Amino acid sequence: METGHRKALQQLARRELPGLYALARHLAGQDAEDLVQETLVRACRASGKLDDPGAGPRWLRAILTNVWRDRLRARGRRPDELPVDEPEHFSLYATLVEEDPLPYSDTLHVDVLGTFSAQDVHLVLQRLPDHERAPVVLRYVEGFDTYEIAAMLELPLGTVLSQLHRGRQRFERALWECAEESGLLEQPTHGTAVAAGRGRR
Amino acid sequence: MSVPPGCREAVRRLWDHLDRGLEPNHEQQLEQHLAFCRRCCGELEFVRELRTLLRTPTAASLPPDVHDRLDGVIDALGGDESLAGA
Ligand SMILES: [Zn+2]
């Protein structure tokens, strides 16, 4: 491979390392470091194919997603062949409005979401099964469109759309469970509820 | 935690609406519903906030030791033929 390609890849990889690691953590949890490492090696083999330097960040994320997908398959799990248990329809908004012990406030729902840190969101996402978490992360955290996600995961578009739908439902439900476990709605004020709930546990 | 029956279709479509992924007739039905339903307008704003929450970058998630090891891998990309598969 040409030295110029390698130098460009090294620069790109250094710049994108935090973002790649964050995506790897969302997808693979504890295996994130290993996943990034294999991604870098695979990117090096393919770096001659990257013509547009501006596309580099997304190109690396696509490779990382491919590596993750291949690992899942190697463990005998195909993202599209897992049992489909249709979660009962769940609306976090409706739940918050109904379960709120305090007088209704127009800003309640925003206040509740404001108590979740980025780390909380990461932990909530970890509660989703792999095949639902991946489309949610790729769509809403990384900003890929559904066609790109279908290509990266090698799944039909319809499968991705239904996984995305179920994943969003489960994300809302998992946020609610997390709020309940933290004692969110038992607190007199919403603003400090999660931190206070954590302290008690 | 019930959604009123008349709102269920609208609620099911809020995320896709924000993704701009609805068929034109579904989009039209939803807009007509939102034009008179304050409840669903509230949920639409809520879903918008949820999407913003998901985009919040995870701060300081790359531990220094992991950074150093991965940086070493990047260094090796510069010259190691076995890594490059050449
Ligand atoms: Zn409605």
How are the SSEs placed, and which strands pair?
The complex is a heterodimer of chains A (201) and B (86).
Chain A: H1 3-28, H2 32-46, H3 56-74, H4 92-99, H5 108-114, H6 118-125, H7 130-141, H8 146-153, H9 157-181, H10 193-200
Helix pairs in contact in A: 1-2, 1-3, 2-3, 7-9, 8-9
Chain B: H1 8-12, H2 14-18, H3 24-36, H4 38-55, H5 64-77, H6 81-84
The complex binds zinc ion.
Zinc ion binds at residues 7, 10, 33, 37, 39-40 of chain B.
What would you say about this model in short?
The complex is a heterodimer of chains A (201) and B (86). Chain A is an all-alpha fold.
Characterise this structure.
- The complex is a heterodimer of chains A (201) and B (86).
- In chain A, 68% of the residues lie in helices and 0% in strands.
- With 201 residues, chain A is mainly alpha-helical.
- Chain A has two domains: 3-74, Rna Polymerase Sigma Factor, Chain: A, CATH 1.10.1740; 92-200, Arc Repressor Mutant, subunit A, CATH 1.10.10.10.
- Chain A is elongated, with a radius of gyration of 20 Å.
- Chain B has 86 residues and is mainly α.
- Chain B has one domain.
- Chain B is 69% helix and 0% strand.
- Chain B contains six helices and no strands.
- Chain A binds chain B through residues 1, 6-7, 9-10, 13-14, 17-18, 21-22, 25, 33, 36-37, 40-41, 44-45, 89-95, 98-99, 109-110, 113, 116, 118-119, 121-122, 136, 139-141, 143, 146, 161, 165, 168, 171-172, 175, and chain B through 1-3, 8, 11-12, 15, 19, 21, 42-43, 45-47, 49-51, 53-59, 61-62, 66-67, 69-71, 73-75, 77-79, 83-86.
- The complex binds zinc ion (ZN).
- Zinc ion is lined by residues 7, 10, 33, 37, 39-40 of chain B.
